[in-house]
Design a protein that fits this description.
The structure holds 2 protein chains of 2 kinds. Chain A is α+β, with helices and mostly antiparallel strands. In chain A, about 40% of the residues lie in helices and about 10% in strands. In chain A, strands 1-2 form a two-stranded antiparallel sheet. Chain A has a two-stranded antiparallel sheet with strand order 3-4. Classes of the chains: A alpha+beta, B mainly alpha.
Chain lengths: ~200, ~500
């Protein structure tokens, strides 16, 4: 019987497996360090500082890049209170913890990840569902505290259940969603028309 | 020892522990299907169990039961062959037994809390005691710590036993893979407000478990089962295993990038994620070729027909579910429209079933055979083996049918909600109310019921197959090396 050629031998593939795994993992580590530096809040323009909730946020087609991009505008403090970055972070943190505590992800998606039973929340702050800038905060607060009573199910019969969200938690959630809407998601979702779309035309 | 009767004296120490894991795995499999059906009904009748068992609860238990029963199956499979593969008794088996009861008690408490408390206030206590609220890894932090502790005991059993007995290619890969498995879980065990950073590390757990370490783990399990079932030569099986590891980690580790297109991470993940995830199906093709080739070479003579059939179902399911269905929507140019739609659900159903449920079921059959005294499980089973054949047909048809129904729903969502309507809430609901979508949801439920029927039959079969069988298991004469028997796996 002829000897096994190198390319079919066990030792060759064993070494290949070790090298390929090691190099891939090393590359992943390097890329992870780079990505972490670029996505820490406020460190670059990809993920904004939490104080972005003091600003007007929009999401529009960038003609040069040919993709949708967040647009940070002038002052538009959430609930009329301009917050320091620390206070803004505290409010967004309450929102994020509530988002996890109420298990939102098992009906909704955010950044496109989650369940598919309820709408994506990435740009929830900008959704035309909230009519306009003047009504938005009031409508969102009322909805989160009594979702079944203020159901917006567009003929599906699907309602969000009452999850016992307090007013503070609702404010936190809204801050979290406003901040999330300002993240540069490389154009996801595409072709999304915000509640400012009318006035932008 | 009497043949054909369930008798634990037929099992070695590891196998006794393995069947405990397998039994809990089956219970969780039932829970997965049951809560999946409830969630499927809610897509059609949203008022069903509203504010009692909401979709979020049912869906969470559906996916958590799945993850945990897969893990129970894998852990059981490893305990199953640990003594045969190492040639010695398991080191620290007592500790392994305790770990099993600790883990099972923890799983039971977590599920009861999911069912009866469901959610809590937006503070740290909820995350520690009730629900972490992150998909797939919802288990509260106290349970995370328990899971890591149990995995360490499992690792100690495995590494300690091989170190005392003998090492082989299979055991070497397996041991290193378990280090990665336990280590990666910890990447999901911290809180951060930054949702981009959160999802970045969350994918380390979810992707690098499911698309890398789990794949390699089942690669080891399959390598061993091909030697067991067919008498395949160790040298060939292990060479294939190394090829698979090279291809799996070579594509899967950086293939992680396909989850980093839209979560706020830099643009360089487009080419990296696109390229490497496009390569991800290749090792899965290799597995199909490898298993079919081996089965053909051995003229489909096997010691356990149902197990071999499920191993082959595994390779095809892995290739189509994880490979083809994954590739179909992995490139950013299509993923922009399909990300976060029923496409993902379609891919998830076929891949988890195809890649992981199948191989676990194969091991359940190996366990049933040995537990009854290593009885005959080849051709000419009692009643022509109709139960295993029909349960296999129903389960595969049911899952494939759900996959196709969800794929149609995903097409419709991508076009109507995403491309046309632009993903607003009204766009989302325009997609959800279109009859192409609602019809797909009805078909998904019907085929879910078919799957459930297959599961009932599977349980019945596992409880009865080989009962009263007096013929001993087939001993395969290895055609390439006459005289070498396959009933005991050829040693390194």
């Amino acid at each position: 019987m002829k000897a096994t050629p190198l390319w079919a031998s066990e030792t060759f593939w064993k070494k290949t497996a070790i090298w390929v795994t090691a190099v891939s993992f090393l590359l992943l580590i390097v890329l992870t360090f780079d990505s972490m530096a670029k996505v820490s809040a406020g460190n670059s323009n990809r993920v904004p500082a939490y104080s972005v909730i003091n600003k007007k946020i929009d999401y529009r087609l960038d003609a040069k890049l040919n993709r949708y991009m967040p647009v940070i505008g002038g002052d538009a403090p959430l609930f009329g209170n301009t917050l320091s970055n620390e206070d803004a972070e505290r409010l967004v943190t309450l929102g994020k913890k509530t988002f996890q505590a109420k298990n939102c992800i098992n009906c909704h998606t955010i950044l496109g990840n989650g369940a598919y039973y309820a709408p994506d929340l990435t740009k929830a702050w900008l959704d035309p569902n909230w009519v306009d800038e003047i009504n938005r905060e009031t409508l969102m607060l009322a909805f989160l505290q009594d979702p079944a009573g203020n159901a917006r199910s567009y003929g599906t019969g699907r309602k969000m259940p009452n999850l016992g969200i307090t007013e503070d938690e609702a404010r936190g959630l809204i801050a979290f969603l406003k901040w999330t809407a300002a993240i540069d998601t490389n154009g996801f979702p595409h072709n999304f028309k915000t509640l400012y779309a009318q006035e932008n035309q | 020892m009497s043949a054909g009767v369930l008798d634990s004296r037929n099992l070695n120490g590891g196998q006794k522990l393995a069947v405990k894991y397998f039994i809990v795995a089956m219970v969780l499999f039932v829970a997965q299907i049951l809560f999946g059906l409830l969630a499927a009904i809610q897509f059609i009748a949203p008022g069903f169990l509203f504010e009692t068992l909401d979709f979020s609860v049912n869906r969470m238990i559906h996916i958590n039961a799945m993850v945990v029963w897969m893990l129970y199956g894998f852990i059981g499979a490893v305990y199953w062959f640990l003594e045969e593969e190492s040639g010695v008794e398991i080191v620290g088996l007592k500790l392994g037994q305790i770990a099993f009861w600790v883990l099972t008690a923890a799983v039971a408490i977590v599920v009861l809390v999911y069912l009866f408390l469901q959610t809590g206030a937006g503070d740290d206590t909820t995350r520690w005691l009730i629900n972490e609220g992150r998909e797939y890894i919802e288990a509260p932090r106290w349970a995370d710590l328990g899971i890591v502790a149990v995995l360490l005991v499992f690792f100690y059993n495995v590494a300690g036993t091989f170190a005392k007995g003998r090492w082989s290619g299979v055991s070497g890969v397996l041991t290193l893979d378990l280090v990665a498995l336990a280590g990666l879980y910890m990447a999901g065990m911290f809180y951060t407000t930054n949702v981009t950073v959160d999802q970045y590390w969350w994918w380390w757990v979810v992707h690098l478990w499911v698309e890398a370490t789990w794949e390699v783990l089942v690669g080891c399990i399959m390598a061993w089962s091909l030697m067991k079932l067919l008498g395949a030569r160790r040298k060939i099986v292990q060479t294939w295993l190394y090829i698979e590891v090279a291809l799996m980690f070579g594509s899967g580790i950086l293939g992680l990038g396909h989850h980093y297109f839209w979560i706020g991470t830099p643009e360089y993940w487009f080419p990296i994620g696109g390229f490497f995830s496009a390569l991800e199906p290749i090792p899965l093709v290799a597995m199909v070729v490898h298993s079919i080739y081996d089965a053909g070479v051995h003229k489909f003579q096997s010691t356990n027909h149902p197990a071999l059939a499920w191993v082959i179902a595994h390779t095809f399911g892995n290739f189509f579910g994880a490979g083809v269905w994954g590739f179909m929507h992995t490139l950013p140019q299509i993923n922009l429209y399909t990300h976060g739609t029923q496409w993902t659900a379609s891919h998830g159903h076929l891949s988890f079933f195809g890649a992981y449920a199948t191989i676990n079921i194969a091991f359940f059959y190996l366990a049933a055979q040995q537990w009854r005294g290593n009885v005959w499980m080849g051709a000419n089973l009692a009643d022509n083996g109709w139960k295993w054949k029909w349960s296999m047909a129903l389960l595969n048809f049911g899952v494939l049918g759900m996959t196709v129904a969800l794929l149609i729903a995903g097409y419709e969502q991508s076009f109507i909600e995403r491309a046309i309507e632009g993903s607003t809430w009204s766009g989302y609901f325009a997609g959800q109310t279109h009859y192409w979508f609602t019809q797909a949801m009805v078909w998904r439920l019907i085929l879910g019921i078919v799957t459930a029927a297959g599961l009932v039959l599977l349980i019945w079969d596992l409880l009865t197959i080989g009962a009263g069988e007096t013929r001993p298991a087939l001993v395969i004469e290895r055609h390439d090396e006459p005289g070498v028997k396959a009933a005991v796996v050829q040693t390194a």
